[in-house]
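quick one, 349 residues, struct below
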Amino acid sequence: MKFIWVSVIKFITLGIESSCDETGIGLYSQQHGLIAHQLFSQVEIHQEYGGVVPELASRDHIQRVLPLIKAVLKEAKIKLTDIDAIAYTAGPGLAGALLVGSAVAKSLAWSLKIPVLGVHHMEGHLLAPLLEETQPKFPFVALLVSGGHTMLVDVEAIGQYKILGESLDDAVGEAFDKTAKILGLGYPGGPALATLAEQGTEGTFTFPRPMIDRPGLEFSFSGLKTFARNTFAKHPNEKADIAKAFEVAATQTLMIKCRRALEQTGRTTLVVAGGVSANLSLRKELNHMGKKIGATVFYPRQEFCTDNGAMIALVGHFRLSCGQHDNHHEINIKPRWNLEELTHIEQIK
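---
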């Protein structure tokens, strides 16, 4: 099958995100940047189970993805045939959920005779600050923090990534969710814990800052979660103070490792992305650290901290514009995918 290649002058990329429990659709234009995006979160669906149920997530993506694509096209005031390329999340993520986005993207691209490309979910988060007017310049250090990932990455350019350190057990977002569950805060736990922590008094309890007393940039948050459980068992009526102690310990640990990464690499720019980057306590710690050592810290806007289609459209735009594309007839997903495996590309303005 022949597909139609287009001039990057008018290039419009459709992005489809379906890696977990949020269906996101975005449209990125070469001329105008992000022109439309829509998101449906499955929080209410999974609340009664206390976490994401993969089968339910997959089924809901099937129901949501096409209506959301229609809504995005309507918002942008364009037709489906105006799209020049399609990007979708190929991984990492839940296999069933990834298959939905991949199948829809490949089918649409085949019918429209346009290029299609599977992109890396965490590269989407990493580059999400490039959707803003004020953008970080390469090279920089990135802190990627979410329910499934906690890692520090040295970013030389798009596709040139070196993982400096990552969590040896629970990701920080996972630790937030599990600690919230211990405290009986329900799902999603991270935001609920952060809200409760605002009512707590700092210093009532002192939690450990894991792995800061040894060299290296690895993380470990499982022990911090256990410390919270043991403290709650002894002080069941002091939930807010426990939430505050946990949040302070977690965010200060992240801040200390970020400072160490900046000093070791000699970088002066830090990018923070992923769901946990929306945490205000973390932002306060990192902004203070940045001012102290003369580093600039960048974040995506709040709506692009969590999973979204805009960041997938952006990454797809960069890579598709450089000629990368998939075979239309193969459904390839990567539930596990190392960020360092990606290829370097030149950024197209």
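The radius of gyration is 20 Å.
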